[in-house]
Every structure is written in C-alpha cells, then in structure tokens.
Amino acid sequence: MTNATTTPKTTLRPIAPEAWETTARARARQQGEPDWALEQRRIAAAQAKALGLPSREHELWRRIDFRTLEQGLAALDPFHAGPAAATFGDLPAGLRAVLGEDADRAGVLVQRDAGVAFERNAAELERQGVIVCSLERALTRHAELLRPRLGALIEPDYDGYAA
Q1: What total number of domains does the chain contain?
Q2: In a 10 Å sphere around its CB, with 0-12 CB exposed, 13-18 middle and 19+ buried, how is residue 44 labelled?
Q3: pLDDT at residue 68, as a whole number
Q4: Given this model, what pLDDT does residue 95 score?
Q5: 118 and 160 assigned to the same domain
Q6: How far apart (Å, rounded) are the C-alpha atoms in residues 1 and 6?
Q7: Are 147 and 135 in contact (CB under 8 A)?
Q8: For residues 9 and 58, what is the distance between their CA atoms, to the nearest angstrom?
Q9: pLDDT of amino acid 103
Q10: Does any domain span residue 137?
Q11: 60 with 113, same domain?
C-alpha cells in the first residue's frame, strides 16, 4: 500500500531500450552528431532506466504528485518535434509574455518537445563569439566546444532526470 510519504519507484517505460537506441542512432547520424554524443546519450538512457524517476523518498521530490507524470509517460515520444515558429510573434502569447518584448532579447532559443520552435542570435553577439543555439546545432557545429562541458555540471547517476 502507498501512503503520502512513499511512492513506488517508477520505471521509465515510454520507449523500449532497443527501439530508443535504434531511433537515437538513426537520428544522430541524420543530424551529423559526433559518436561521443550518441555514446553519452546511450549511457544516460541506461542510467535513467536503472535509476527510475525520483520518488517522494527523495527530499527534493517529497511534495511532488507524480501521478500525472506517470500517466503521461506511456504516450511520451522523446523524438517528436513540436511546431516551429517563423517569427517571435508566432510563439504562444503566454510564452511571449514571460520572455518579454522581442527587442529586449539578444539571443532567444525556444525548445518545444524534441525540436527547436524558435532560435535567434543577435549579429552583435555572434561577432563577440557568443553562441546561442540548440543542443542539436551545437553538436553539429560546435562539438569541440561542447564536448568538455556537456554533462559536466550534474552527475548523471543522481536520478533519472539528471541522467
């Protein structure tokens, strides 16, 4: 029986590991991602599966209601790209309200599901060497800058989300 302080450990089951690996490998090849990134992703997926999602037994997650998340996992498609926005004005009104006026942002990146919905880097920033881009683009265009930093701040074995 489950009480208010303990929730059974949830296992990640939205996509079978073999199917994930096949799809991830095909997508990485299609995007031109480096092999080290795919390997890092494969290891993280295995760790996430082994660790499961956090539960109320973890202090940071003690007051979270996981029921809606658990119900949504069955329908999760980690490779689905949401619709893109051609301009800042095409983004949902609620998101634009949170981000503020378009002119106030030098670099903007909006991710929707597994795809980039909107991306803009001001020319002035680019001239200064500042890169604002999606992880997907960084892996193909700036892999040498990304490799030593990707996954360096959070240990992937903390919980399924970190992995």
Answers
A1: 2
A2: middle
A3: 77
A4: 87
A5: no
A6: 9
A7: no
A8: 11
A9: 56
A10: no
A11: no
Q: Which domain holds residue 33?
A: 1-79+152-163
User: Which tokens hold the place of 56?
Assistant: 């109320």
Is 146 part of a structural domain of the chain?
A: no
| 143, two tokens | 């892999």
Same domain, 12 and 69: yes
Q: Which residues of the chain have pLDDT under 70?
A: 1-17, 53, 74, 76, 78, 102-104
Query: What pLDDT is attached to residue 58?
Result: 76
CA 32/CA 40 separation, integer angstroms: 15
Token pair for residue 134? 């999606």
The verdict on residue 39 lying in a domain is: yes
pLDDT at 5: 44
Contact 163, 51 (CB under 8 A): yes
pLDDT of residue 9: 47
Name the token pair of 52. Answer: 């499961």
The single residue listed with the structure tokens 């295995």 is 46
Look up residue 32 and give its two tokens: 């031109």
Confirm whether 138 is domain-assigned.
no
Model confidence, pTM: 0.64
Entry field: residues in the chain = 163
In this structure, are 60 and 90 located in the same domain?
Answer: no
Per the CB < 8 A criterion, the answer to whether 103 and 115 are in contact is no
Are 24 and 85 in contact, with CB atoms under 8 Å apart?
no
